[in-house]
Structure prediction request, 252 residues.
Amino acid sequence: VILMKSEKPCKKIVVKFGGSSIADNERLSRAVSAVVSEAKKGTRIAVVVSAMGKTTDTLLNAAKNSSNGKLEKHELDDILSMGERTSVRIFCAALRTNGVESRYFDPLDEDWPIITDASFSNANPLRDECEKRVKESVLPLVEKGTVPVIAGFVGRTLTGKITTLGRGGSDTTAFLLAEALKADEVVLVTDADGIMSGDPKVVANPSRISEIDVNTLVGLADSGAKFIHSKALKYKPQSVDVRVINSAHGDL
Ligand code: ASP
Ligand code: MG
Prediction:
């Protein structure tokens, strides 16, 4: 008789670190250690990172101001992709040096999963292609407990050109991954305490909404609440819950 050790299925999550949550050394270290301790509990994790702090704005201004407005759209996307492409390298190296197996995904890697059309600066993911690629190249890593670190916001066309998904687009990256990985949850790490009943800059004492369904949130997003990238909500898998946490907590 062969006795198989029965294993409890591990929880699978996609964690997205927004720019503010990795904006400086202290926050970056906090983000890394949050992933390290969660991974050590046995949770299977895929990480999506944005550009650190306001990097994307810096790149955008530098590129525009230095090129007399003569930049081709695909050139600008290639430049803007560098914020996230830097983040994945730093985050992955930090995970590994803290004892967690990790691999980063760059849009020029052959097995890069996020494939889009050629609408530069606001590219649309080709969902079936993304799903197939995530299953082929990202899922096996997650299943064996290696933490893939994927550049948010960026994509690649079928002919190999780098695209971007629109400002705030790394939420879309996280949802696309969650769908194909069949994740239990998406965790969006930000510098807000959650979704508020109003913009704290406009409304006095807005309260935190503990739970909100996606259709109501679409309404808020469209009315300029600018919380979750409204275009990204279209990609939120129905069966996956999204949790928003403040990076100050230091855990997931
Ligand atoms: N870094 C990009 C931006 O600032 C994408 C993102 O943060 O989701 O818009
Ligand atoms: Mg951002």
Notes: The longest helix spans residues 127-143. The longest strand covers residues 12-17.
